[in-house]
Structure formats: C-alpha cells, structure tokens
Amino acid sequence: MIKLIAESTIAASLFSAGVFMLYFAWKRRNKAKKIKKLMGHVIDLLEKNVGTGNIFTEEKEIKTNRHNLEMAKWILDQIRSLEPGHALALHYYGMYYLKLGNLIDAEKLCKKAESIDPDNFIIQNGLGLVFEQKGNLDRANAYFEKACRNNPDNTDFHNALRNRSGKVYRGFSAGLRNEK
Predict the structure, then answer these.
(1) The pLDDT of residue 51 is above 90
(2) How far apart are alpha carbons 71 and 92 in whole angstroms?
C-alpha cells in the first residue's frame, strides 16, 4: 500500500511538473509573439517619414514626427519590460536616439545590441548609420560591408553601400571590389 501511495505521489508530481512546463512554454511563446508584434509597430513608427514639402503643413509634420518618436519609445519600453536584453529592441532604442541626434547614446545602445547578436545585419547597418552621422566614414563603411556580407540578398543594403563608398558586394566568393 505504501508503495502505491509513493508511486501515485511521484506520478502526480511529474504530471504537475509537466503541466507547469507546458504553461511556461506557452507563456514564452506568447511573449515572443507579443514582442514581434510590438517590434513591427516600432519599425513602422521610426521609419515613417512625414514630409510633403508644403510650408503650411510643416508644424503638423513636426508634431506627427514627435508623436511617432514618443510612441516608438513607449513601445520600446514595453518590450524592454518583457525582455530587457532583446538585441533588436536595444538597436531600435539606438535608432530612436539617432533620430533625436543623440549620437553617444545611439552608439552605446547599438554596440550593446551588437554584443548580444554580433551577426545581425540590421544591427550592423544601424551601427553604420550611427558612425556615418558621427563622420567616421571608414568605420561606417566597415559596418555596411559587414551587413552586406551577413545578408547578401538584400539589394537595399548593396545599393546603399555602393552609393556611400563606390563598392559593390558580389557574394561571398567575389568579395568587395571598387566599381569604376
């Protein structure tokens, strides 16, 4: 009888442990989905470029841009509360500060993101943008080249690199060469 009770207790504890494991896996999955959705909103807000060139709408455009940046920061704060070390969230915090003209914080956050995910081409491209704004074009081009190497199919990165430095990346085997 004691053996039956012991086996029942073990089975019950294993069942409850399995239920908890499934519950926590479900929570992690939902958190990842929520972060992905929030990150999409951040990207949309930071990439919106309001500007018609009309003098009469200039004040409205400034307010809209300011609102977009404030919303992006608020969403990034939400992501940071869910996962403080999320590399892309840190990167987009850096891009937020870059848009504000705060190059020191932009570089610091993008470097921290790179330390978490060193092969992420989005982060490398962002670091290239930061160094380009700082006037360090050699370092900026190095990051743009690294972004092209890590994402060879992205024509936007290749075109940007060609426009900035005159170099074209032709896949891993050809390497970088000057276009004349």
Answers:
(1) no
(2) 13
Whether residue 125 contacts residue 143, with contact meaning beta carbons closer than 8 Å, is answered with: yes
Q: Which of 149, 128, 157, 123 is nearest to 140 (CA)?
A: 128
At residue 53, the pLDDT reads 46
Identity of the amino acid at 67? H
- Residue 86: CB atoms within 10 Å: 21
114 within 8 A of 124, measured Cβ to Cβ: yes
State both tokens at 123: 């982060």
Q: How far apart are CA 59 and CA 63, in angstroms?
A: 6
- Tens-digit pLDDT profile for residues 108-124: 999 999 999 999 999 99
What is the per-residue pLDDT for 94? 92
Please give the Cα distance from 93 to 2 (Å, whole number): 60
The model's pTM is 0.67
Q: Options 3.40.50.2000, 3.10.310.20, 1.25.40.10, 1.20.58.1190; which CATH number does 20-149 get?
A: 1.25.40.10
Q: From CA 59, how far away is CA 45, in angstroms rounded?
A: 18
For the segment 159-177, what is each residue's pLDDT rounded down to a tens digit? 777 777 666 555 433 444 4
